[in-house]
Write the structure tokens for this entry.
Amino acid sequence: MTDRYETRRSALFDELPESVETVYVAPSETLRYLSGLSMHQSERPTLLVLSRETEPAAVLPKLETDRVADALGDDVSFYTYGDATDPTRAASEAFDRLAEERELSGEAAVEFRSTRVLEYNLLTDYHDPASIRDLEPAAAALRARKDDSERESMRKAARIADRVLQETFEDIEVGMSERDVERAIEKRVIDSDADSYAGGIVTVGERTAFPHADTGHTKVEEGDLVMIDFYIRVDGYFSDITRTVAVGDPGEKCREVYEVVREAARAGREAVAEGVPYQNVDRAARRVIDDAGYGDYFPHRLGHGLGLEGHEPPYLVEGNEATLDVGDAFTVEPGVYVDGVGGVRVEDDVLLTEEGAEVLTETPRDLRIL
């Protein structure tokens, strides 16, 4: 019986030009997608080798053999090497054995974003660098179309994120620091059914005007905005949510900005439909912000894909003329950031299903005064 990973590996070649004979996959989320293997990059070069006509092969340290065999079964050929003072040289010798047996040549594909020079250099003795293509467009096209199992994992991740966020709101009070708030979130995630807390940003007061600041030690004061943005993983799949709340009355200007962003987020979500260009969803939200006079204060794209990574294709940004397809999962997260005043971002996770746009995150979007 063909398993989901075999099906994905076969489908990958359907997304590539027929001239590509070999695919090399380094440790990455694409490796996990194609094999079920979750491997970190280390000083030991590792490559999964796929071809149209022959069984998979792996160039890897000997100590990883059992784990890879469990994932790929008995049909994989191993080209292993032991620990050495120079693991790169040892890996190169293993790759030479593979190349000799497989007669490697012709066009190949690797994922430029995740493949290090360490692995890439193994290929260049056997493939002209000019013939090596970027695998990411093909891999991204597959990974973007979430199947039923992936969708359910993302729904679960969003449910947990909603619960954690709303419980954390009850903790926030004057005198707490940004780090205090993030620790409260992280503790709740650890105590939940999520795989892990995957990172976040908490900013307070005027620091909310920095779209991507690090969580710091600034303490909450009466009237401050508090922006909370965090990721969690469930079954390897991400949720990503942002809400901005106020501790006491934030003032008329902050209320105005909040309403503009809330309306922009609504417009973005409502623009989601099969066949709509990604850039049009960005445009729908951005139009609201531009019309309100805050266009110069919205410096980032509207959203990014979600899946095995917190940021992955597709990107909802001007210039992306590709169109939304069933199975796409992504964020819709407009923001307005005004120096000396503060910033507001409202972020939701959206899945495009056969029935239309499904908003996975449900935490209320009205301005919450704590």
Remarks:
- The CA atoms of residues 77 and 344 lie 53 Å apart.
- Residues 148-169 form the longest helix (22 residues).
- The domain at 4-143 is CATH 3.40.350.10 (Creatine Amidinohydrolase; Chain A, domain 1).
- The radius of gyration is 23 Å.
